[in-house]
Amino acid sequence: MKLIFLDFDGVLNSGAWFAKGQGARADYPRGHFDPECVERLNRIVARTGAHIVVSSSWRYGRSLGELTYLLRSVGVQGIIVAKTGLDGGTRGEEISR
User: How far apart are CA 60 and CA 91, in angstroms?
Assistant: First the structure.
């Protein structure tokens, strides 16, 4: 199975996105995600057939179901299968487990 370990900040949004005034903190969750970046992710998923594992810090305090709902609500079309562990290692260490 092909997997994409997905971070949100800097991947599905960026400082530039917020600086343009297009990202609105009050418009949660839509305002937190750049639609062009979401579409880019959707194209990658469609071309590769990869599933998504959330490795973003957004996983803290959110269940897999909540993360799936969040990503669906902003247009992500891929299958979200897991989130990385929360055992205190670096993100890379969590991904390698």
Answer: 12
- Measured in whole angstroms, how far is the alpha carbon of residue 85 from the centre of its chain? 15
Buried b (16+ CB within 10 A) or exposed e, 39-78: eebeeebeeeebebbbbbebbeeeeeeebbebbeebebeb
d(CA 88, CA 9): 19
Task: Answer whether residue 31 shows pLDDT above 90.
Answer: no
Task: Please give the Cα distance from 3 to 1 (Å, whole number).
Answer: 6
pTM above 0.70, yes or no: yes
